[in-house]
Amino acid sequence: MKLACRCGQVQGEIDPARSYARATCYCRDCRAFARWLGGAGLLDAAGGSDILAMAPDGLRLTRGADQLACMSLGPRGLLRWYARCCRTPMGNLPRNPKLFYLGVPVAALAAPAADVDQTYGPPGRIRINPESATGNVLPTRMASLRGTLRIVRKLLAARLAGRSRSVFFDAESGTPVRSPEVLTLEQRRELAGRD
Predict the structure, then answer these.
(1) What pLDDT, in 10s, does the model give residues 131-178?
(2) For 88-106, how does the pLDDT look when each residue is reduced to its tens digit (9 = 90+)?
(3) Residue 147's beta-bridge partner residues?
(4) Which of 156, 154, 192 minimizes the C-alpha distance to 31?
(5) Three-class DSSP category at 65
(6) pTM summary value
(7) Domains of the chain by residue range
(8) Better pLDDT: 171 or 7
(9) Alpha helix segments (H runs only) across the chain
(10) Cα–Cα nearest to 75, from 58, 95, 89
């Protein structure tokens, strides 16, 4: 599955076999990140972000790694990666590279929606944080539980197998390949105030 930023300077590939689940996250942080980026089409009508949960080693960049940039909504928040050329979201990761998780916004996939749906399932089947949605969103308790268990199982399997490669972290030091821009409390409040 092809990955690309809006302007095409950053390109890559995703291995579908490394995906864990597809979910829509309605948390305030995902909305704040989308607003900070300023791009249209990053959130659904209820403020949800369509995310592909996967193993970080399932993403390979083929072009434009120099355009990657990183931000965080706080000093301990997720590392949120984007293409600085056009501010396309590229992935969200925990600060600890040993937690083998990457959330790729479906907006970064350069494939027809029908192909994405066929490969990863339809959007909205798993809804995370529906209580934070800006519109009426029903919870998907059983699907969310199954998705969470699948993610945890695959995270543990990757940890036991010793997998750790990620284009976002330096293999030697385990530090991010770019220093994150950490937003101030005032910046976070301003973004949250738009709800």
Answers:
(1) 999 999 988 888 888 988 888 888 888 877 877 788 999 988 889 999
(2) 999 999 998 888 899 999 9
(3) none
(4) 192
(5) helix
(6) 0.91
(7) 2-192
(8) 7
(9) 28-37, 113-120, 141-161, 185-192
(10) 95
* Other Cβ atoms within 10 Å of 182 Cβ, number: 15
In what helix (H) or strand (E) does residue 52 lie, and over which residues does it extend? strand 49-54
CA distances from 148 to 64, 111, 129, 172, 181 (A): 32, 26, 13, 30, 29
b/e for 125-154, b at 16 or more Cβ within 10 A?
bbbbbbebbbeebeebeebbeebbeebeeb
Fold held by 2-192: 2.170.150
What percent of the chain stands above pLDDT 90? Answer: 72
The encoded tokens of residue 98 equal 């040993």
Q: Do 97 and 164 meet the contact criterion of CB atoms below 8 Å apart?
A: yes
